[in-house]
Amino acid sequence: IMFKMTIDTWNGAFRNEFGETDEEIEQLDPSSWELRRILKEVEDSLEDGNTHGKIFDINGNRVGKWSLTDD
After folding, report:
1. Taking the mean position of all CA atoms in its chain, how far away is CA 28?
2. Single pTM value for the model
3. Which residues contact 34 (CB under 8 A, 6 or more apart)?
4. Quick one: which of 17, 22, 34, 38 has the fewest CB in 10 Å?
5. For 8-42, what is each residue's pLDDT tens digit?
């Protein structure tokens, strides 16, 4: 079994609480609640028996996908 997940963390939903986007601080907030929220949604979907899905950020933007396969 193989689990794959891709998440683009380029947008504001993944930045710090101040919304800073200056190039010097343009990086993923390591304690990003948004990333934790998405992982919890995927966990819930797996528990419901799903084997794949699209990932949306809190603002409704599609930011990735995940799949569980027999590869």
Report:
1. 12
2. 0.77
3. 13, 14, 57, 58
4. 22
5. 988 878 776 555 554 545 555 655 788 889 999 99
